[in-house]
């Protein structure tokens, strides 16, 4: 996508509310994986709209999505149904008469100060050099549960990334709590994310329990802020979510 920035604003309350747990391989199969894949180019397209139109409907033809994601057209309609009817994170206008559907991502609810909160979803780093497809999904074959698990974890890490340390600090128990992914399946899912260049994993010692914990960094978001430029002890801090134990 021409003009895309390093990161774009992304609504995340649905992730923290546990909606990812509603997507299961048993009930949805690869369609759930496609639904989560679709979210990225939708958010990217919204970011390219004029400032006054960022909360309005955008047009994104199926042909464009099949090119960007390398998925078959029959999987797109049921994937959008999941996003609209089950997760309730977007609205769809269906004009008919051969016209493309239009989509609107639901923004987070305004905070007490009236500001709409958001998190940072990577932009340019997800694409091929020519910006014609999402390179990070190139190896996805839509045939196994691990791809769905991986995308659940990816959106959780995006939602939990802290600005100060530029990483999501969350343990396996809380990852499973938010996503429904079993703890013994998390390492396989994070390995896929690393291989797809969606995340990097560092380690740091928590100032709370003095144990080593994983730091999940989002590729493409503040790439110059990492373990080599942040004091490893100061960047760790409490593991995000420990106040929920």
Key attributes of the depicted protein:
9 helices; globular; 245 residues; disordered C terminus; two-stranded antiparallel sheet; alpha+beta
Write structural notes for this entry.
- This protein has 245 residues and is α+β, with helices and mostly antiparallel strands.
- The protein has 9 helices and 7 strands.
- The strands form 3 sheets. Strands 2-4-3 form a 3-stranded antiparallel beta sheet, with helices on one face. Strands 1-5 form a two-stranded antiparallel ribbon.
- The longest helix is centred in the N-terminal third of the chain and has 18 residues.
In terms of topology, how is this protein built?
Elements: E1 7-10, H1 13-16, H2 25-28, H3 30-47, E2 58-59, H4 62-69, H5 76-86, E3 90-93, E4 102-105, E5 119-122, H6 145-160, H7 172-179, H8 186-195, E6 199-205, E7 212-218, H9 232-236
Antiparallel strand pairs: 1-5, 2-4, 3-4, 6-7
Provide the succession of SSEs.
EHHHEHHEEEHHHEEH
For the largest beta-sheet, the strand count, sense and barrel status come to: 3 strands, antiparallel
Distance between the termini: 42 Å
Output the strand order for the largest sheet.
2-4-3
Summarize the structure.
With 245 residues, the protein is of the alpha+beta class.
């Amino acid at each position: 996508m021409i003009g895309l920035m390093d990161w774009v604003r992304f609504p995340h309350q649905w992730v923290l509310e546990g909606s990812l747990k509603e997507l299961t391989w048993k009930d949805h199969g690869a369609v759930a994986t496609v639904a989560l894949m679709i979210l990225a180019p939708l958010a990217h397209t919204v970011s390219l709209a004029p400032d006054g139109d960022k909360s309005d409907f955008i047009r994104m033809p199926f042909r464009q999505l099949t090119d960007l994601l390398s998925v078959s057209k029959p999987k797109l309609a049921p994937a959008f149904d999941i996003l609209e009817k089950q997760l309730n994170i977007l609205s769809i206008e269906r004009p008919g008469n051969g016209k493309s559907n239009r989509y609107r991502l639901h923004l987070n609810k305004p905070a007490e100060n009236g500001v709409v909160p958001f998190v940072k979803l990577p932009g340019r780093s997800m694409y091929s050099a020519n910006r014609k497809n999402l390179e990070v999904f190139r190896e996805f074959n839509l045939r196994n549960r691990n791809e769905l698990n991986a995308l659940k974890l990816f959106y959780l890490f995006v939602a939990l990334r802290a600005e100060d340390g530029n990483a999501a600090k969350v343990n396996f128990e809380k990852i499973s709590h938010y996503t429904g992914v079993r703890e013994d399946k998390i390492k396989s899912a994070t390995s896929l994310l690393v291989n797809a260049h969606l995340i990097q994993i560092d380690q740091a010692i928590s100032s709370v329990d003095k144990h080593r914990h994983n730091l999940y960094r989002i590729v493409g978001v503040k790439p110059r802020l990492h373990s080599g430029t942040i004091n490893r002890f100061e960047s760790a801090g409490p593991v995000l979510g420990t106040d929920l134990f």
